[in-house]
Structures are given as structure tokens and as C-alpha cells.
Design goal:
It is built from 26 helices and no strands.
């Protein structure tokens, strides 16, 4: 019996958590957040807070929350200081510059290490600019990845929900496959009942016929041998009789010719005295062939009882057993087929006993509603994400603008500067480069605090989301927290899935489903579902068993050999009976010459003598011709008959010894077979009927074992349920949170590097801008002398300078 396998549905592929080349950046963000927030997930605090055991107005609650958020608070304080002091410092710096202080005076002292200092500042600012450029590139990519994540998130969510729907719908289908598979044992059982003649009758026939057929085969072999022996006996009898008659005729012929030759030789006188015909008589004594009539009589006596007919009848009795079984069990088979239909009706009700199927149906409907609602919000989310993308691009462009001013300043300054030219004679390109650097510093002062404010806000939200949601989600602490008893009543799986007396938790269910375990073990369904009770077909299989046990088969009886046949067989087995024939003497005689005297030699003697005795020539020649005719007659008649007789004797010598052995063996086997049929027939029928009934019921037992193993080991492999959480984790954490965190991290590092950018840009700008005053020249042999082409003194006043 071949039962079907349960095949798993086809699902959409899982979303890849690939970082798309940003894994290094993500690792940096994770490491930074790990330093900022090294505390474990606050399970106890959140539990007390949610259960209202911790009063939110209690200062201790705030202290505990602040202790947990210490790292974020430190970063927030640093960011707040940055937001406050950067614009304030920028304002003071601007005022000082306008007053000619803080490097605002257009005067540059010329020293020997001036070129080295300029190159060092150039290299440092270039390095800072490259770092800013790397950061803004990462910010651009991260900003774009957030948008892609939103778009991919909805598609992935739809695919995930489709997978879950396919999975939830597949469970009832798999249960239906199990239930529908009852048709396999039903069909097998029905087929066995329809072919009961072959299935039961043939086995009864084989069991009974094993010994009976062996006895019948032995009897048939005996009859074949006796038939062959009979033919050979007839041949021996006829051949011997014919040869004896021919020998009598030969004796007459030899006597007549012998008398004639003796008379002729007497008339011939002394000249013919050398020829003697005294041995002209038959040589072999064919009367020594044993009489086989008694043996033929015994065989004919056995044949007259027609044992072949008895054997044919016995074989027919056995061969008719399958048809008899089929005819005698029609009513029982009909009743059993009715019981099979009751089994079919009972199994049709099995799906209704799995209450969890209703819960799964509700879950499927809930997931459909959730997907529909999510799709309704997709345009709104996409719209707001568009705004977010524009804001992100603008923020990146602010940093990019500063980088552009840096690059222009470095480019124009480096290309336009002539180190040999006095500062007041610097070219326009060099002066423009310095102005670009000052512009870069100005924009850094203007936008740095704004960038830090936005970075701090996104950092606080994204960082806490990662540490409070994504990180504990990845290490399983979040599920353990959600499993806290009575913390979230709506997340009670026992109630949601209608699992009575089950201790299933989100963590245990997720862990089992990650390894694609079946629902039976994942939900501990053996605690509240008893398969033996659901698949309790014993009542119906018991009815089938009791119905089939009413089978009452009678195969009839037959006599393998009657007493008369046995008696005649025993007569054939007597060692000293008529079949004990000795052909040795006859064979010896058959091998001798039929005539003692050689007729050819005598004929030659007579012809030679006729040439010498003209008086009796004619008589001697006639007698020689007569001898020649006798020799021809003997050659034509005796050898074929003798060969036939010899062949028959040889075959008889081979077959006759077999008959007593075959008779004894056949009678013994017949006796045993007859006894076996009389004593064991009912037992054989009973045993084979019981085996047949067990085989029919065994179809259902095999089905039940298969169905239970499928339910406990294959039905509802819940990998797709775990894939839902994994997919949501991928969408939310890998796509959105990591991308958002990468964005603020990139902007944050750019914002931090704006400080060295300001310092280096301001310092380097003085090496490129055109000065208003020359530097004085120092000589060891002369007094210092200041060279000036402009007024050395001006009244301090606020003015704008280039």
C-alpha cells in the first residue's frame, strides 16, 4: 500500500539582510552604539513600568531611566554644547575678525618655516575635506537606502504576508490530504474483498495443495512409469511370440533342407563324406524369454480402476477452492464493504476536531487585514518619505557645499600662490582661494549647530530603537520580554491559538519554527489533542474484523486414491511378484546365432561339391540355393524383431525396479496427504481466513500509523511563521533602522569634523589671501626695518574686509 507524501508549498524568497556595501559603516554604527549603551536590555524596569508597579512620578523611576540612558544623555549634552557654543563662538569670532583681531588683521609675518607650515595646513585640511567627503557620500547613500528600504519594505511585507497566508492555508490542505488518503486503505481493502477468491482462496489452495500436489505428482509419475512399462511388456510379449513362431518355421525349413542334403550326400557316396549337416538346426532358444502376461495383468488391473480420473478429480477439487471461496463469501464481502463506507464517513469528520484550524483561519484573516491596511498607508508613507529624502539631501548638500568651498579654496590657493611674491602682491586666484576657505569656515559656523541638532534628534531616536528593539530582537531578549506572563495579555498564544493547557511561548515557538519544526511539536499539541481519540477507527475496524470473521468456507473433500487402487498398487510393489522379471537368460540367447551351422559356409561347400560330382550336381545346387534363401529369410525377419525385443528388455530393466519404490513413496505420500486434508483443512481455512482479515484491517492500521507520523512530523512545518519575524526584522532593523542610523552617523562625523575644518580653513586662508601690510625684513647685520606701502595706523572701527 503506497501512501502519498506531503509536499511543502512554494514560497517567495526571503528578503536578503545584505547591507549593500555598507556593512562596514553599519558595524561602525553598532560599535559606537555599543559604547554609548553598554547596558543590558532593561527587562525588569520595563516589566514594572508596564505593570504600573513603578509609579511614573516617582523620582526613582526617572533615576533608573536616566541611568540606563546615561550614554545617550552624555552624547546629548555634548551635542547641546555644540549647538550652543558653535554659533556663539562663530558670532564672537566674526566680531573679532571684524575688529581686526583673531587673525583679522591683513598682516602675515614672514618666517623661514612658513612654507612648511602652509603645506602642513594644506595637507591637514585636505585630509579633513576627504573625511568630510567620505562622510557626506555615506550620508547620501544612507539617505537613498532609507528610501529604498521603504519601497522594498512594502514589497517584502506583501511577500511575507503572502508566504504566511500560503502557509496558513496549506495546513488545512495538508490535513485534508491526510483525510483523503483514507481512500488508499479503503480501496486496498475493497480490492482485497472483491478478489477474495484469489487473495484467500489461492492461499488456502496453496497451503492445502503443497502436500496434496506432491502426492498427486508422485502418483502421476507412477502411472507414467507403469504406462511405459505396459507398452514395453506388450512389445516384449509380441516380439517374443513372433520370434518363437519364426523359430518354429525356421526349424521346419532347416529340417526339410537337412533331410534333402543328407539324402543327396548319401546318393553321392564316399566322395561327399566331408560335408556334414548334423548342426543344421536352430541355434538360440527363444523360449527363455519370461512370460509377461501376469505383469500385464497387474498393470491392467490398476488401469481398470482409472486412477487418472481420481487424480484429475482431486486436482479439480483443489483448483476450485478460489471460486468456492468467492461464491461462499458474497454476503460477508457485501457487509464488509458497507463497513468500509462507514469508515469513510467517519474520517470525513476528522478536520472538524482540530480546533486550531479555526484559530489559524482567524490569523489568516487578521494578516490579510493587516496587509490591506499597510498597503493603504503606503502612499502616505511614500509621500512623507519623499519629504524626508529632500530634507536629507538638503542636509547633505550643506556639508557638500562646505566641501566644495574647501576644494575650491585648496585648488585656487595651491595653484594661484607664488611663494616668492610678497603677501600684499598675491594674485587673484590665491586671494580667491583664501576667500573660499573663509566662506567654508563661515558656513561651518552657520550650519554646524543645525546639523548637530538634527543629528542629535535622529541619533536619540535611531540609537534607542536599535538598542531597545533591534539588538534584543537579534539576541532573543525581546521575545523573552514579550513572553513575560501577564505583561501583554493580547500576546497570549495559548488564548490566540486556542491552545488549552499549553505552555507555548513566543521564544519557544520562534526557536522551533526557525528549524522548520512541525506544528505538533512546536505548539505542544499533544497536551490537548489526542490523536488516538481523533483517529479512533477501532470501532469500525472492529466491525470489519467481526464481519470478516463470519467467513465460513468449505472446500469439500476428495479421495486421492480408493482402496481398490491402493490394493492394485501394492500388488505392483511386491518384490517377488510378476513384475520381478529376469531377462538375463533371454538376452544371452538373443545374442546367439539363430542357426548353429553357418549357412554361407555350407552353401559354398555344396556348390564346390556340385562341381566335382556331376551325378548329383543339380540336387546339390538346388539345395545350396535353398540354403541361400533360408539365410536371406533369417536376415530379413529375425534381426529387427530381436533388436526391438532387446530394446524393450533394456527399458524394462531400467523401469521395472522403479515401480516398487514409486509405489511405496506414492502410497505413503497419499496417506499423509489424505490425513492432512481430513485433519488440517479446517485449521488451514481458519488460519488463512484470520490472516486475510488481519491483512484487510492492517491496511487501516498502517494508514493510522502513517497519518499520526505525518501530523506529528510533517504537517505545518512552521518555518514560514519564523520567516515573518525574520522578514519584519530585516525590513525594520536591517533596512530602515540601520540605514537611518548610518545617515545620522555619517552626518554626525561630518559635523564633528567641521570644527577642525573651521580652524584649518581659517589658518590656511591667511597663507592665500592678499595682505594689506608687508612684513618687516630681519637681517643680522642691520637693525629691523619695517617696510610698508600703506598706512601703518588706522583708527579702530568696524568695517567689512575682503
Amino acid at each position: 500500500m503506497s501512501l502519498p507524501n506531503i509536499t511543502q508549498p512554494d514560497y517567495h524568497p526571503l528578503p536578503s539582510p545584505s547591507a549593500g556595501g555598507l556593512q562596514g559603516l553599519f558595524n561602525m554604527v553598532h560599535s559606537f552604539l555599543g559604547v554609548v549603551q553598554p547596558n543590558d536590555f532593561p527587562t525588569d524596569f520595563l516589566t514594572r513600568l508596564i505593570n504600573h508597579s513603578a509609579v511614573i512620578t516617582n523620582p526613582e523611576v526617572y533615576k533608573e531611566a536616566l541611568r540606563y540612558e546615561t550614554g545617550f544623555l552624555v552624547c546629548a549634552v555634548i551635542g547641546l554644547l555644540f549647538v550652543i557654543f558653535v554659533p556663539l563662538v562663530g558670532l564672537f569670532f566674526c566680531c573679532c575678525r571684524c575688529c581686526g583681531q583673531c587673525g583679522g588683521s591683513m598682516y602675515q609675518k614672514q618666517t623661514k618655516n612658513m612654507n612648511c607650515k602652509r603645506k602642513a595646513l594644506f595637507a591637514s585640511l585636505l585630509a579633513v575635506t576627504i573625511i568630510l567627503l567620505a562622510g557626506v557620500i555615506c550620508a547620501f547613500v544612507s539617505n537613498q537606502r532609507v528610501t529604498q528600504s521603504v519601497d522594498r519594505g512594502f514589497r517584502t511585507l506583501n511577500n511575507t504576508m503572502d508566504n504566511l497566508n500560503v502557509y496558513l492555508n496549506s495546513i488545512p490542505q495538508e490535513i485534508n490530504v491526510l483525510v483523503d488518503s483514507i481512500s488508499v486503505p479503503l480501496d486496498e481493502a475493497n480490492k482485497s474483498l472483491i478478489d477474495i477468491g484469489d487473495n484467500l482462496g489461492e492461499k488456502i489452495k496453496a497451503h492445502l495443495g503443497e502436500q496434496v500436489y506432491r502426492a498427486l505428482n508422485s502418483a502421476e509419475q507412477l502411472l507414467r512409469v507403469t504406462s511405459n512399462v505396459e507398452q514395453e511388456l506388450y512389445t516384449v510379449n509380441n516380439s517374443a511370440s513372433t520370434l518363437q513362431n519364426l523359430q518354429k518355421e525356421l526349424d521346419v525349413k532347416l529340417t526339410t533342407v537337412r533331410d534333402n542334403i543328407n539324402k543327396t550326400l548319401t546318393d553321392c557316396g564316399s566322395s561327399c563324406g566331408d560335408v556334414s549337416v548334423s548342426n543344421l538346426k536352430p541355434g538360440a532358444n527363444l523360449s527363455t524369454v519370461p512370460d509377461v502376461k501376469e505383469a500385464l495383468k497387474l498393470i491392467n488391473n490398476l488401469k481398470s480402476t482409472d486412477p487418472n480420473a481420481t487424480i484429475v478429480k482431486a486436482r479439480k477439487t483443489l483448483d476450485d477452492i478460489p471460486q468456492k471461496v468467492s461464491n461462499q463469501t458474497k454476503k460477508v464481502v457485501s457487509d464488509a464493504q458497507g463497513q468500509l463506507q462507514r469508515v469513510k464517513d467517519q474520517t470525513d469528520n476528522i478536520p472538524g476536531t482540530f480546533s486550531i484550524l479555526n484559530a489559524l483561519g482567524n490569523a489568516s484573516q487578521f494578516m490579510n487585514d493587516l496587509t490591506k491596511k499597510a498597503n493603504e498607508y503606503e502612499p502616505i508613507v511614500a509621500t512623507f518619505d519623499g519629504y524626508r529624502w529632500i530634507i536629507g539631501i538638503c542636509l547633505c548638500c550643506l556639508v557638500l557645499l562646505i566641501i566644495v568651498f574647501n576644494m575650491l579654496g585648496l585648488l585656487f590657493g595651491a595653484l594661484g600662490l607664488d611663494p616668492k611674491v610678497m603677501p600684499i602682491y598675491r594674485g587673484c586666484a590665491s586671494h580667491s582661494g583664501g576667500n573660499f576657505l573663509m566662506t567654508s569656515a563661515g558656513f561651518s559656523f552657520i550650519f554646524g549647530w543645525l546639523l548637530m541638532l538634527l543629528v542629535g534628534l535622529i541619533f536619540f531616536i535611531g540609537g534607542n530603537t536599535y538598542t531597545l528593539v533591534c539588538q534584543p530582537w537579534a539576541n532573543g531578549r525581546l521575545l523573552e520580554f514579550l513572553d513575560t506572563p501577564k505583561l501583554f495579555p493580547d500576546l497570549n498564544l495559548t488564548r490566540m491559538l486556542q491552545l488549552n493547557n499549553s505552555n507555548v511561548t513566543l521564544s519557544s515557538l520562534y526557536n522551533n519554527c526557525q528549524s522548520n519544526q512541525p506544528l505538533w511539536s512546536s505548539l505542544h499539541m499533544d497536551d490537548f489533542i489526542h490523536l488516538d481519540k481523533i483517529f479512533n477507527l477501532s470501532e469500525y475496524t472492529g466491525d470489519i474484523d467481526s464481519t470478516l470473521n463470519k467467513i465460513n468456507v468449505s472446500v469439500g473433500s476428495t479421495e486421492l486414491l480408493n482402496e481398490n487402487q491402493k490394493k492394485h498398487m501394492w500388488d505392483l510393489s511386491k518384490e517377488d511378484g510378476p513384475l520381478h522379471l529376469d531377462f538375463a537368460a533371454a538376452q544371452k540367447q538373443l545374442n546367439q546365432n539363430m542357426i548353429k551351422l553357418d549357412l554361407s559356409t555350407l552353401e559354398k561347400q555344396l556348390r564346390d561339391l556340385a562341381q566335382k560330382t556331376p551325378a548329383v550336381r543339380k540336387e546339390l545346387e538346388d539345395e545350396a540355393n535353398e540354403l541361400q534363401q533360408i539365410q536371406t529369410w533369417v536376415n530379413d525377419n529375425f534381426p529387427p524383431k530381436i533388436r526391438t525385443l532387446n530394446s524393450s528388455i533394456q527399458r524394462l530393466q531400467k523401469n521395472l525396479p522403479q515401480i516398487p519404490v514409486l509405489v511405496n513413496s506414492t502410497l505413503l505420500q497419499m496417506e499423509e496427504a489424505q490425513t492432512f486434508m481430513k485433519v488440517q483443512t479446517e485449521e488451514v481455512i481458519k488460519n488463512e481466513t484470520s490472516a486475510f482479515v488481519n491483512s484487510v484491517v492492517g491496511f487501516f492500521e498502517k494508514y493510522l500509523d502513517w497519518a499520526k507520523s505525518m501530523i506529528t512530523g510533517e504537517v505545518g512545518r512552521c518555518g514560514p511563521a519564523a520567516w515573518v519575524l525574520d522578514s519584519v526584522n530585516t525590513i525594520f532593523c536591517n533596512y530602515l533602522v540601520d540605514s537611518a542610523n548610518a545617515f545620522w552617523f555619517s552626518l554626525g562625523w561630518c559635523t564633528v569634523f567641521l570644527l577642525p575644518n573651521i580652524i584649518l580653513a581659517v589658518r590656511l586662508a591667511k597663507f592665500y589671501r592678499r595682505m594689506f601690510m608687508d612684513d618687516f625684513y630681519e637681517d643680522d647685520d642691520t637693525e629691523p626695518m619695517e617696510l610698508s606701502r600703506q598706512s601703518m595706523f588706522k583708527m579702530p572701527r568696524a568695517e567689512l574686509r575682503d
